[in-house]
Every structure is written in C-alpha cells, then in structure tokens.
Amino acid sequence: MTTNVTTVPAYAAPAANAPLERTTVPRRPVGEHDVLIEIKYAGICHSDIHQATNGWGEGIFPMVPGHEIAGIVAEVGPGVTKFQVGDRVGVGCFVDSCRECEYCLRGLEQYCVTGGTGTYNALDKNGEPTYGGYSTHIVVDENYTLRIPEGIGLDEAAPLLCAGITLYSPLAHWQAGPGKKVAIVGFGGLGHMGVKIAHALGAEVTVLSQSLKKQEDALKLGADHYYATSDPETFTALRGTFDLVISTVSAPLDFSAYLSLVKTDGALVNVGAPEEPVKVNLFSLIGGRKTLAGSMIGGIAETQEMLDFCAEHGLGAEIELISADRINEAYERVVASDVRYRFVIDTATI
C-alpha cells in the first residue's frame, strides 16, 4: 500500500445494532509526521459492542470498531523520527488530542479537555470520521503510536492497548505493590490482565467473580485468592480487607456492598462503564474515609511504560484468535461472557 491508495478493506457496522459486514473505508494520505501501519491483529473490546449498539450514546455510522491494534510500520512520513519501516507498533483508544491543555502537557492525554480523538467513532480535526482496527491498514500520527517490544507476540499484545493499560493505570496510580491487598472484580478481558499485572507488581491479588467456574484459570494467572460474589458469605468474610478494589464489570453493581470490602482510606476504582446510572449510599464512603473513583485507559507515555513492563515480565493477553467472518459470533459470545479471555481478529482474513 502507498500514499496513493485511499481505501482499505474493513469490517463495519452499517448502522446501530446491525451485523458487521465487509466493506472499504478511506485512509488519509501519509502526512509529515504520520506512520502507515499494516494491522496484523485487532482485539475485540466490550466497548466496541457498546458503541456499535449506541449503548453509550449515538454513534457515527458506518462504524469500524477496534482500538486494540498491533501491526508493522509500512511507511513513514518525511518528518517521522520515532519509527521506521518494519517496526512493531500498536495503537490504543485515541489517535489525537489537543496537545495544549494541562492534561496533554502532563502526559494525561486520555483526560484531554477536548475529549481527544477516538481511534474510531469520532471526528478528527478535519471533521472526518475515524475508523478503527477492524481493517488492514491505519494512518496514525507518530506521537500517538506505541512501540511494541520484542518478547510479546503481536497477537497477545493487541489487547494490551486497551485492556492492559486500563488496568495498569489505576494499579500504578493507587500504588499496588508489595504489602498491598488488591481485589479485581470480574475476570474477563480486563480482569484477567488486572490479575497478571497486579501479581507482577507484587500485590496480594484476589479475584471476585460471580461464580467459581474461572477459579482455576485465575489462580494459574497469578491470583492468590478467588471468591464467588454470588455467595453472600463472601462479603461477610472479606469485609474491610482490601487497600484497592478495581471493578472491571460493565453492569451496575451494588457499590455499597463492594465498598464494604475496602479498608479505611482504601479505594474502589471503576474501570467498567455500565450503560445505566448507578446508585451509591454515601454512608458507605463516609464510614472509613473511602474513595469511590474512576479511571480511564492511560496516556501515551504510561501506555508505553505498560508495554515495556509487560514485555519485561512476559505478560500478554490470553486470547482466542478468530477470522474476520466470525466477528458477529464473537460479539454474541462476549455479551454472554463466553470468551477466555479476549477475542483477537487476524486481520489477514479481512
């Protein structure tokens, strides 16, 4: 592919709730500071489904989801200094930001005051829609492109660009490590990476999941303990136990119940994004000076830090590799929690 080619094969949702289908989408010419990435693998995140079904608000259609992108640099613009052809690279949840606000200047581009530019389901600075990773190529500014270190397969690295950083960022911010007790609520695409990363950071890790069916997997991946939240005794036995609880689930929880598990001065951090509002009894916060917080992915520097950390510790996602013609089936299975633990599309099949 060269800069003269402006369309690439992709899988897109033509309308909200419509099955994804093969199509083509435009890609801008490679600019001064752009890299053209030949996408090798694209993870399927639950947020792809939320957006393709208008669960988080009205989307931009046709929509090409995908913000867990791993591939190889195929071309670079004349001003690019960070990458060269052949480099292993990744793209996460955003491809631009204002670059001027206090958060962008602090390396917290995910909290850009303009909201930044999503990898898909967004409009770029020229007012053109962005299209994500369920495609064969993408053009991205070098400053929003990540280097994937050797030591992680590109297929296992793709989910790190969302699932990995979504858990790494709060674990790092709330200083998970030796001497800290951390609970991960939910053991899916996000949760299994939370367990791996928290364990590698040296924390004592507990998984809180609806049932015991994933217990063996969780312990194998680094959990020290595992409890079923469907058992009321769990909340009695673990009351006041954890320094940090991270909820990865995208359904409303009884936050007062989960706050009861947090120590005084501890935190319950939500990285899941339910479509419905949630309620919380403020007495569950007041008694114990507890924090109920949220966290959203990470900035470019922190995402690179996460990738380097995962490579150093041999951490990749647990994946099920699929062909592109199985995307709609995969969506159904994600909604049914029937995946261990991340679907990844082999984009050579698009």
From TrEMBL:
**What are the Enoyl reductase (ER) domain coordinates in residue numbering?**
15-345
Reactions catalysed, semicolon-separated, are:
a primary alcohol + NADP(+) = an aldehyde + NADPH + H(+)
Q: Which UniProt keywords apply?
A: Metal-binding, Oxidoreductase, Zinc
EC number annotated for this UniProt entry: 1.1.1.2
* Keyword match Zinc: yes
Q: Which InterPro entries match?
A: ADH-like_C, ADH-like_N, ADH_Zn_CS, CAD-like, ER, GroES-like_sf, NAD(P)-bd_dom_sf
Q: Tell me which domain of life the UniProt entry assigns to the organism this sequence originates from.
A: Bacteria
Q: What class of enzyme is it?
A: oxidoreductase
Which cofactors does it use? Zn(2+)
Molecular-function annotations in GO: alcohol dehydrogenase (NADP+) activity; zinc ion binding
Query: Which Pfam families does this entry report, sorted A to Z?
Result: ADH_N, ADH_zinc_N
| Similarity field | Belongs to the zinc-containing alcohol dehydrogenase family.
Q: What is the protein named?
A: alcohol dehydrogenase (NADP(+))
Species classification: Bacteria, Bacillati, Actinomycetota, Actinomycetes, Kitasatosporales
